[in-house]
Batch of 3 targets.
Target 1
Amino acid sequence: MEDRGRDRGSPDFGTLLRHYRLAAGLSQEALAERARVSSEGISALERGYRRTPQRETLALLAEALELDPEQRAIFEATARPSSSRHGGSISVGPWPSAGTFPLPIALTTFIGRTTETSEIAALLRGHRLVTLAGPGGIGKTQTALRVGSALSEAREISVCFIPLAQDDTGNPATLETLIANLTDKPLLLILDGCESVVDDAAKTAHAILGGSTHLRILATSREPLRAAGEYAYRLPSLPEADAVALFVDRAIARNHQFALTDENAPLIAQICQDLDGIPLAIELAAARMNVLSVKALAERLAAASEPGMHSTIESSYNLLSDRERRFFQRLSAFEEGATLDEVTAACAPDGTPAGDVLSLIASLVDKSLVVAELESSEPRYRLLEAFRQYARDKLSACNE
């Protein structure tokens, strides 16, 4: 089987995944252990029962399969759903009953987020639509699943998980089918991955909430849905202690001899800080502990960004307008962030009004590409380091 793009006759994602897995000499169970995902999930992808993985899962699979850049590009292109923010459908319905969408079984240790999960659960008790927002790789899906599992185990509410890359919410007949199946009992509906179809997701949330007084929605998205009654909760990076604990747990999974020591603890903390406490980036880095020492990994990360984050960031970048992309690129000039005046001077030298600059910043903050630090009297705006390096590479390509 030849590696080809998504032209006529090219393989579907499940076939390609199986091809790469067998070429690496791995069973489904071995790949699942390497990628820290469930073997049931890999089986479902290969059989076509699930057609596309989450972006974070895709990055972990590519890393575990040790794909070269060309193979990774084909792998990601084959998995990419053909949808867009405006008018993009998600796939063909109809949606069956809620019992057909149970929560995925978690086979990895969930670390940290104690405060966040408690706060999100409390919000869901008081609001019917809560959107868990944050950049790619920050752990929105896993946190949402953790909240759903806790509420389900406490018998507070039944929970239904809908990955939006795989289901169509734009068809009116499909909506009627969904609403008819969700009105008979209290239910929490987790709508996962709304960012690529945010307009459709907002319309869907409005329609199904209006059709059922017993329904609550927890959405995950890189930006708020801006739907009526929405309460947005922005998921932060992991604090240092949790980030280090996650790194150690995932490193031991790849190398059972690995251990946290007094000697390597400062380096691990520095690695987690360099990766901005982003769980996906930390997991991808920890996966290298079977081939690199902690010191070598720290030096490598200091020289270049973690490649496994590239596709996650690119998927957000591709949703930007041309104007937002240029502004995002120019923000990479600030290593430590900048004030509004500094951003205006450096990123809009053509006389763009300050109000337009603020609107661009607000849009990128909403899309989880810029971090707004509002604690001091003068707000500062910055890019997470992996995002800044990506933006810098784009800026260099434009010869600016």
Note: The first strand starts at residue 129 and ends at 133.
Target 2
Amino acid sequence: MKTVVKLMVIVGLFMTGKQWVQAAQGSGNKVIRYSEYGAKGDGVTDDFDAIIKAHEAANKAGLKVIADAGATYYIGGADKTAIIQTDVDWGDAKFIFDDRNIANRNTNIFNVSSKLPATEITTVKTLKKNQQKLDLSLPYSSFVVANNNTVRNYIRWGPDANKGYPQTDVFVVDRNGNVDMKAPIIWDFATITSMTAYPVDPEILTVKGGRFTTIAHQMQPPQRYTSRGISITRSNVVIDGVYHTVTEELDLTVPYNGFLSVSNCTNVTIQNCLLTARKISNMGTYELTVNRSTNVSFINCTQMNDIHSTGTWGIMGTNYSKNLYLDSCHFSRFDAHMGVANATIRNSSFGRQGLNIIGCGTFLIENSKVNAYTFINMRSDYGSTWEGEVIIRNCQFLPRNGLQADAVIIGGENQGQHDFGYQCYMPRKITIDGLVINDIHTPPNYTGPKIFANFNRDYTNANYVEKFPYIITEEVSIRNLTIKSGKPLNVSANPYMFRNVKIVNSE
């Protein structure tokens, strides 16, 4: 027996990483560690190749990956990605992403992806808003992205004006083509130039832990977006307990596309994470991005640097997304760039850049605090449009975090002269049920807080003509409103524009 044990130890000294995996499987050990593939974890040696190989083996064998306790993994600027398709526990391990000299700014370090192949759909030729079923038969429930390159939406107005983007919609269907009506189709498509179905994995994949530090890209602007983080393109994923900091940023830094970026998927939860807003860039620069996705939640996530700082950009940006949910988050900003359908925010606080929305459906914020110029800003560069309802419940508003400021609940601008590629709406109904306005440092001649900003300074009489009519709010319902200054609530500095809004005060 002793001879057999000695022989096994001697053979083990000459085993490769893959052979160790095979032996581990045979002995009941169901995990893979980076050190098994040569990772040193000393913070100096570039461990990227070893990390990539470990995940390749784990994906093939269906095994969990565990980082070595106490390790520091240095990852240089190679044009490579580690593909994650199994559970990962990074524990207390540290990762250094050195972006000072990268080979490809578009290559993320990690990609959480599905093993299931996407399907190009060519049989569906049109779509209707709120359509409930597509004539499809698919092997899996799928997340669908539809495009129409012959129609342009989100034709931006203002300093960053552009010619818009192809009409895009995202939704989930089951194997028989039934649309999940919790995230309905929101556009009519007269034609479809491309449609892709991304299978929804039935099992939840979990990525836990890890202490990440990015040594920032040192190139001087102007520079296009850099992607050097963790991208999630698989449905049914939980990211739990990731910490991320940024060092060696220049005063005017290169724009980043998100350390955690979610795209082309559904049912993703990012929770218990500590994150960092980046320094001001010549373009927007982000820590969190959500693009073409549904049912994405951020729970108990905190921005580690000052949410009120004028030296950092807003931490978050989203496009073409539905059913976003935030609970117990502490961010400088929530932002829906090119549309969100339905968003819920609870038990959270927002700093200098506040809440920025464009989209449709129901926007609900409750038990939260906003410290921006306006409580909600409807982005003027995309028409200040929200086709649906806004609900504010049991919240606090401290304009500009206590600096001198007017107090405006709903901000935005639309002069009715620009074609954004869609009809623009104000929220059909606004419900305020519990709001404390801390208007403690106001400008001279302050008359009190306002429900609406002056959305169109020229629209002061019946002679004004809108080329593209802006649909005004029908009703504002108010109860449990506290105004610290004691001043009365005003409709707007431009009462004519909002003359037909029904104000229902239930005090």
Note: The two ends are 86 Å apart (CA to CA).
Target 3
Amino acid sequence: MRRLKLRRGQLDLLAGCPPCQGFSAMTTLNGAIKRNDPRNDLVFEFLRFVRALRPKTVMMENVPDIAKNKRITQFLAEMEGLGYRCNHSVLNAADYGVPQRRRRFILLAGKHKKIPFARRAVRKRSVREAILRLGAVGKRDALHNIPERRSSKTMRLIRSIPRNGGSRTQLPSHRQLRCHRKCDGFKDVYGRLSWDKVAPTITGGCCNPSKGRFLHPAEHRAITLREAALLQTFPRKYVFSLRRGKFAAAQLIGNALPPEFVRRHAKSVLRSLRQHHGKF
């Protein structure tokens, strides 16, 4: 507060995301095991900033399973005790102009004022709308021009996956990888996107078809980092550094909350600030 020359109550918006790994269903096998991840308590570090800054509005996002955790119940109770009215739910980014299924817990809170979520989009955006005009790989865009190195066996598998939403589960057993024949889960692995549907959740493994349904709808390759970024709704020319390599950039893209989803809810926060504080 000293560095930013902020007085208590002066900050317009405090936004953040406490680490989500300990709350994620993926790391707890959909709740079958319990994890006592010390990072879960960083929810209360977020609350410490709210107490100290007393911002006019608060926005927090996390994985859906945080909604079932006792820490969020305590968090909400303390927020209300500080005079905040909380609006929280698990929302799907596909309902807000993002061509991707992505469910996230969202909290919007205003001092003595409840902030509504953004209006839902009239229709969902498709993979086709997001990436078709980008065209084939091989252009000057570094994120769209990173070569793939795969074994001949893996390439034969990829070529055999039916285009436009096809899955390895459609192949006879003898044409699947041995590890896939032994595992009954993770059926999206080596699956293709569908042109006229929303994409599945873009993750940090988005450039690797062994991590999910990340094969291009028509071409025999994984989606590029630029295609993944467009499915996340980053602007076409947004720069991601490749200095630390392809997979580090993929983590940045996959871990992000989609900008279009953020923009729509930010406009709701902005309207609240204008109505009740006469700013902007």
Note: The CA atoms of residues 97 and 121 lie 6 Å apart.
